[in-house]
Amino acid sequence: MSWLDLADIQGNIHRPYGRFGFPFTRHLFFRINNAAAGRRFIQAVRPDVTTAEPWETIEASDGTHIHKKPPITMNIGFTYAGLHALELPTRTLRLLPDEFIDGMSCRSHILGDEGESAPDKWDRAWTGETQTTHIWISLNAPGQPDGSPQPILQEWTDKIIGRARASGGVELVTGHGADGAGQWQDSAAIMATLPDGTKVPCAKEHFQFTDGISDPVFKGQFSADYEKVMVMGGGKIAEGTFNRMTSWSALETGEFILGHVDEGQELPVATMPAGFARNGTFVAWRKLRENVEAFNAYVGEQAALWGRINGVTDQAEAVATVRAKMCGRWDSGIPLMAAPTYAECQALEAKYAAVPEIQLRKPSNDAERNLLAEYQVLLTSFRYGDDLDGSKCPFGAHIRRGNPRDMLDPELSATMGSSNLTKRRRILRRGLPYQDSTGEKGVVFMAVCSSLFRQFEFVQQQWINYGLDFDGGNDTCPMIGSRPIGTGDKPHPDLVKHMIPGAQKGAPFIAAGIPQFVDTRGGDYFFLPSMTAIRMLAMGTVDPT
To answer: Is there a contact between 86 and 39 (Cβ–Cβ < 8 Å)?
Structure first.
């Protein structure tokens, strides 16, 4: 049992709902026209906010134990403009972090949101004075056998919008989607079809990579026994000789939840009073469009070149290899650190061939549960000290940039190394794919962290959109990085490349002229308050003294 005050912490901080049977998310955004109405609205929705409390465990007829989940989850966040609109005291407002006060669009030069990702290119919901977002409410719903959300999602949507209207001064922010016609932003897991025709969620995104692997694990998040399993690959690496089973430990809670000790052994205070910030956190909410056609076309071209150079005549093998060398994982999720070559990947996928089907229907016995646990260790428990020259996983690969593990340790060797230089940059990743009515595809991405500047913005600017830490000069992430701007606010193709070492004839393969595959379509920074702070906001009793 966790020692955290889970009843005071919002549930979407503690658990990614998509992995717990809620594959549909609806994002509703509201504007506060007067503080009194805003407080009435918060008071009306406050009882429905989902906390991090454990779900009830009940015993099924076959003797197994299952969790009795809520029928739907709901959580709430506020922009700085929203807290200002609620008329919080000046001292509370001015002590909030600078980046949160600025908001995401004002930080576009730091985040690489330029060119097609520039704020003036975002969905209409995020542009213009009248579209300012103050409140974000997320609803997460289970699905039906036909792959559609359960009706409760629309029922709660109508209920919340009705409460906004009844407040007398809170209105829905509309204009989502490429055509600007959306009243809200939906996202949902991509569905797979079982033999009986039932549709179930799978962990794929639109580029068809397996997503949601190796999320950080922090102290108090799981029970002690479960933490021992989840921490492998999700925690920090201790100094000394690496053991893939025992060298991991959970990150300090304060990296993700305010009011708790962080990895700097400090108690970060986001504002005053400290009780207002405690058990809350910050979220970077981003709508990211994926240009699937451009990505597939580019990979196909580069795979043909790579195949000719390396004597690989099977185009499927060449495509799979180039994709993996850009991402750091094969499509199945198996990391290059475990299977550097296509043949090794094929062997591991054959060994664990039963895993995808078990994951879709859930394990039914101890043998299947043990197989999944073994597979999880394979996916997550590795270090880059086993690949000092990048011949297995290129230095610039997406997952090596996003979480360098022990790679940046100056003491890194075949046996030594730790994650001391990266453990303060981790973010909890939340979100699901989306597909708008226009056919536009992408991901609604949410980064949860205690410091937007030290964690999210650092990773985005220094690791994703700059390559020097990975011996890549100005090369950005080959998958999600922004591209240097040339003339006419367009990416300069000659400046973007990705090096794939280990070609069979000795010379590295240079994937050059990489276009931009991912654009930002909207977003902002949100504060997710504790239940205590939500009550303060509803009552208008935030006292900064």
So the answer is: yes
The pLDDT tens digits for 354-390 are 998 888 777 888 899 899 989 999 999 999 999 998 9
CB-CB contact of 322 with 303 (8 Å): yes
Q: Are 108 and 506 in contact (CB under 8 A)?
A: no
What residues form DSSP beta bridges with 449?
282
User: Cis peptide leading into 273, omega within 30 of 0?
Assistant: yes
Overall pTM surpassing 0.70 (yes/no)? yes
- Over residues 111-128, the pLDDT tens digits come to 999 999 999 999 999 997
- Cα separation, 393 vs 388, whole angstroms: 10
Q: Are 207 and 479 in contact (CB under 8 A)?
A: yes
For 439-472, how does the pLDDT look when each residue is reduced to its tens digit (9 = 90+)? 999 999 999 999 999 999 999 999 999 988 888 8
* Structural contact between residues 431 and 355, judged by C-beta atoms closer than 8 angstroms: no
- A 10 A CB-CB count for 490 gives 13
- Identify the residue whose tokens are 């989840």: 230
Q: What is the 3-state secondary structure (H, E, C) of 250-282?
A: CECHHHCCCCCCCCCCCCCCCCCCHHHHCCCEE
Burial 188-209 (b: 16+ CB within 10 A, else e): bbbbbeeeeebbbbbbbbbbeb
